[in-house]
TrEMBL record:
Alphabetical UniProt keywords: 4Fe-4S, DNA damage, DNA repair, Hydrolase, Iron, Iron-sulfur, Metal-binding
Renumbered residue ranges of the record's region Disordered: 1-22
The keyword Iron is annotated on this UniProt entry: yes
PANTHER family, alphabetized: TYPE-5 URACIL-DNA GLYCOSYLASE (PTHR33693)
CDD domains: UDG-F5_TTUDGB_like
Top-level lineage group: Bacteria
Family: Belongs to the uracil-DNA glycosylase (UDG) superfamily. Type 5 (UDGb) family.
Pfam assignment, any one: UDG
Uracil-DNA glycosylase-like domain residues: 71-248
The protein's name in its UniProt record: Type-5 uracil-DNA glycosylase
Amino acid sequence: MPSHRAPAPPPDPADDDFPARTAPGCTGLVELDAAVSRCRACPRLVLWREQVARARRAAFADWEYWGRPVPGFGPADASLAVVGLAPAAHGGNRTGRMFTGDDSGDLLFAALHAVGLASQPTSTHPGDGLVLNGVRVTAPVHCAPPENRPTSGERNTCRPWLARELSLLTGLRAVVVLGGFGWQALLPALEAAGHRLPRPRPVFGHGSHVVLPGDDDRSALHLLGCYHPSRRNVFTGRLTFPMLVDVLRHAARVSGLSR
């Protein structure tokens, strides 16, 4: 007998399972990015990002803040991904582009340009002419969190977006992970995307380099650790511009973007 059961309603962006129900069905990065930008699954993050967008910082009083989740940025055929932590309150949350409009992004894009992976050394706003060459920049949490600290629950809720993004990057050969939080968040996302992880799981460190084996459907994947280009890390000298450039240059080589 034919079933007369009504189809399930589409997921509501405010439901906590919106990422888990929506991400797997996205067939391309354009669709995925649009879905990410509608997400309201984490009430604390929604409240914070919208509050920041209303209040603004005095230096950006004339800006119309993005105030929504920030999708990844870069081409669909990227062979290298750079994974950070989350958008900055007055950076990506303001501009709508990952790592754009804050000190961390200033250093990252200058380094990408120095290695030949970005068309210009600055990233100020969408439409500024920046083009990434074979690189996709993203994060495990897509909303700006209070004090730059997402909770583990927020990270886990957001994970399906990153897992699907990684699976859609079919030519991906290397990932640079900026900071320990990003490293810990990336590993289960890689598993969800179908990659095999060694046991015990690899530990984060600046200069870490782990190779995940390939199979019939995908190439081996190189994971490279790098300290996050946060203001504190740069101010204390824990991460210098040459250190960041060295990691990105190594990543460009193993991903086939340079020789």
